[in-house]
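Sequence, please.
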């Protein structure tokens, strides 16, 4: 049995911390939990930090200690002792949140106790601590408390416009500045924006007068670094783990609306020199919304009875929209160089042609089109009817600033021609005309050919 006076000095606390790292040590030190909680309120900062870390270690994976912690009103004791400090330091905030996160792992009763101690006031204070080491455990606590059927009520509270939304805005604001190291932030934002369909609300709130950046040069055309961070985080999660995300039609359409607005505000006369993120909020919002659309158009619901979100996007005229973007761009660098070599100084200047605002812009548009074309005859026919076949053939080349454009272009053409005799016929007729109407391919010694056995398009050497 441990007595309070035995855990009052730093040397003893440090030794207990080390002992509590093991399962056996946690079991042997379970009696120390009650005394440690009692000592938290009167602890000076150095001892408070050590005691919070001891509580954290005692709760790690020990269901008995986790239950005892809640029975002793541990969540409220931890929160009140931390918020009583004149200023909340990152180390103290991190240790407190880690302790609460460990406690929340032991069932919904514990999660409810942790939530009651934190929401909403304490969460706002923790979200204001500008430190990546605090962002991660805070997101872990939020995600854990809001998971599962029992956590839906807490998730709805977190999404409440007056109570919870300011916490989310502050959290995204902090994370967009200091970053995060673990995946908890990604899953929390996916849960809120995609599963709860709160993307539009949170996106709008991030641009409100209270949160928008006006004095530090980070605001651009109504978009901020926070908007770019949100889209980039969602894109990363959907790209890396699409099978673990359920994409709704509503979310897909909201992302498309953001992309359209961003495309109206970005300056397409200035050639970008870097990939995402560029540091320019408007361009980053444009780029990340395109990346999201690329993955949304490839995402398929688990049930074949459900409509895929790409179908909703296609009904809005997405393909026509993308082909126009692609057609407004200058030709890929390989084609421009070939034309310049052939025509010399007689080559007319295309002053009205737009340029890529970031490295990868052209590739991302082609990738979305390629995904839309996959297995969809109506999209294949639409591209032909919009005179887009030649435009897609022009993308089957290397282009400076658009890595993997050739690969995505070939995939788009494959999906365009596969099983579609009308499109195959049009391509074959194009290549029989003189002069060859596909200089982008001919000038690098290649031509498109339909494999008679498979019916698939392929590039072959023309020599």
């Amino acid at each position: 049995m441990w007595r309070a006076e035995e855990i009052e000095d730093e040397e003893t606390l440090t030794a207990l911390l080390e002992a509590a790292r093991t399962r056996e040590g946690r079991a042997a030190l379970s009696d120390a939990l009650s005394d440690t909680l009692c000592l938290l309120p009167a602890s000076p900062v150095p001892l408070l930090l050590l005691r919070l870390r001891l509580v954290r270690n005692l709760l790690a994976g020990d269901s008995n200690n986790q239950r005892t912690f809640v029975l002793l009103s541990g969540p409220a004791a931890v929160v009140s002792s931390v918020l009583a400090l004149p200023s909340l330091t990152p180390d103290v905030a991190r240790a407190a949140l880690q302790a609460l996160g460990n406690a929340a792992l032991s069932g919904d009763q514990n999660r409810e106790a942790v939530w009651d101690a934190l929401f909403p006031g304490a969460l706002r204070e923790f979200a204001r601590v500008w430190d990546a080491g605090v962002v991660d455990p805070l997101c872990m606590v939020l995600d854990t408390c809001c998971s599962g059927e029992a956590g839906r009520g807490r998730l709805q509270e977190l999404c409440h416009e007056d109570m919870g939304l300011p916490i989310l805005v502050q959290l995204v604001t902090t994370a967009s500045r200091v970053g995060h190291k673990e995946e908890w932030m990604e899953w929390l934002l996916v849960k809120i924006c995609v599963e709860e369909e709160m993307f539009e609300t949170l996106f709008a709130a991030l641009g409100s007068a209270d949160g928008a950046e006006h004095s530090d040069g980070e605001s651009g055309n109504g978009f901020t670094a926070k908007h770019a961070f949100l889209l980039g985080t969602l894109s990363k999660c959907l790209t890396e783990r699409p099978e673990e995300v359920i994409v709704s039609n509503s979310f897909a359409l909201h992302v498309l609306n953001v992309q359209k607005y961003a495309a109206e505000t970005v300056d397409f006369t200035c050639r970008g020199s870097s990939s995402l993120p560029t540091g320019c909020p408007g361009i980053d919002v444009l780029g990340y919304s395109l990346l999201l659309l690329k993955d949304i158009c490839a995402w398929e619901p688990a049930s074949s009875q459900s409509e895929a979100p790409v179908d909703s996007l296609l009904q809005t005229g997405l393909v026509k929209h993308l082909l126009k973007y692609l057609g407004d761009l200058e030709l890929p660098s390989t084609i421009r160089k070939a034309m310049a070599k052939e025509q010399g100084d007689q080559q007319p200047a295309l002053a009205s042609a737009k340029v890529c605002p970031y490295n990868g812009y052209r590739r991302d548009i082609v990738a979305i089109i390629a995904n839309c074309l996959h297995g969809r005859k109506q999209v294949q026919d639409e591209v032909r009817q919009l005179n887009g076949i030649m435009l897609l053939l022009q993308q089957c080349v290397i282009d400076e600033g658009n890595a993997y454009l050739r690969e995505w272009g070939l995939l788009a053409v494959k999906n365009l021609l596969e099983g579609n005799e009308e499109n195959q016929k049009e391509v074959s007729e194009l290549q029989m005309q003189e002069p060859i109407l596909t200089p982008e391919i001919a000038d690098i010694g290649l031509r498109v050919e339909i494999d008679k056995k498979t019916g698939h398009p392929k590039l072959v050497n023309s020599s």
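Residues 414 and 457 are 5 Å apart (CA to CA).
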